[in-house]
Amino acid sequence: MTLTFAAPSDAARPLHLVAPEDLDAFLGGLDAAARAFVTATGFAAKPGQVALIPGEDGPAAAVAGLGSPEARRRERFVLARVRAALPAGDWEIAEEMPEEARDEAALGWLLEGYRFDRYAAQTAPGAQLVAPRGCDAARIEAIAAGEALTRDLINTPACDMGPDALQAAVESLAQEFGAGTTTVLGDDLLTEGFPMIHAVGRAAATQPRLVEMRWGDAGPLLTLVGKGVCFDTGGLNLKPGSSMALMKKDMGGAATVLGLARTIMALKLPLRLRVLIPAVENAVSGGAFRPGDILTSRKGLTVEINNTDAEGRLVLADALALAAEEESALTVSMATLTGAARVAVGPDLAPFYTGDDTLAGVLSEAGTRAADPVWRMPFWDPYETMLEPGIADLDNAPKGGFAGSITAALFLRRFAPESYLHFDIYGWQPTAAPGRPKGGVGQGARALLQALPRALGL
User: Which Gene Ontology cellular component annotation is one that this UniProt entry carries (predicted)?
Assistant: First the structure.
């Protein structure tokens, strides 16, 4: 699947994008026959509403509704709705658009073409778009390709996306862009100092591993750490079936990091990139780690295991400790970490944590501009005591159920370097929306990409 724009062509038909407040002016610019036809269709410029303007050999043009200003604030990717309603062929937006609205429209159009077709044929829209005038087509195509990679990885079930397949995905991406990779595998995790990654993954049929990718030789170092739990049974604290059904997506942090890495490399951003993926399956067997176990992390901190289903923070902790051993301009972790985050903000917002107020402001603004909404959550220091069980340095699952996303973030902060940003994402679109079919979805990556120039001084 290729999410790209059509080449400029004289055969491309004009697509007019009209808001309700501009409808009368638009209709006034049409000839009488076209105006009468559009009016007869009942076209009112509602979001995604389409009217075809006839010509001698079929539709000569189309007009699509953008909706009211309130509707445009509420719904992303309105043009994605339009794509599905247009007949096959090449189309070209007729009007000039403000930069942010133009880029959102163009990206939404491309993302609407995404189909997960690994296991069954899927029909993609036949309508194609010439890149809107003034937009950076290569950048938008790179963003769409990164998002498609993220979605493909999340949507692939664990039978075909175990730790070994996730490693292969990293290596394939590295080969495509001339990056280098190293992997620490199985019992070598113990000798190389990653005991918690080993403990979480040792019960599975496929060995646990830490996969690292490096790209670039100049500029500030950006380190991306992605939770790669390819399937999460909950371990000995076994999940009920209803909670296990979507656990193929528990590597959504790794998938989102890899999609972002792909975009960064495709755009040749002037930075050095380091990607760390602890790839495991949290399974049940005689070798599974147990409630009550105390693990010693790479950093030397001891962790009491009060719930084997709070495993993501364990594998991330070892990876973050490794990241902290080398100075980065910014270290970012992305993880489908807690249900508490979903209770707090729902599936559509990507909550993030940082102690840097300036970075938080830059990221929030970037999320709005990139149509990738994010929401700051607090590193609330008074909750630190909830992490301290008494017989070990840390508790992986504080009792009581309060502030679960915050305490998980505070846990990770104990292992991370000073310049640190954490995303607790959902990674799944529960119902289809414009540009976002039901299934795996990236969250926070576009916001971070938009923020990087200011965050890193690029």
Answer: cytoplasm
Cα torsion 164, 334, 258, 239 to 10°: value is 40
Same-domain check for residues 122 and 158: no
146 with 127, same domain? no
Q: What is the mean pLDDT of residues 346-358?
A: 97
**212 bridge partner residues:** 182, 276
Active-site option among 313, 413, 436, 446: 313
Identify the active-site residue in 214, 239, 272, 369. 239
What is the strand order of the sheet 89-93 is part of?
50-55, 58-65, 13-18, 89-93, 127-129
Q: Taking the complete model, does pTM exceed 0.90, yes or no? A: yes
Contact 429, 435 (CB under 8 A): no
Q: Specify whether 239 is catalytic.
A: yes
Last residue of a domain, one of 131, 160, 175: 131
Report yes or no: 117 and 39 within 8 Å, Cβ to Cβ.
no
Is pLDDT at 171 greater than 90 in this prediction? Answer: yes
Rounded-to-integer distance, Cα 221 and Cα 33, Å: 60
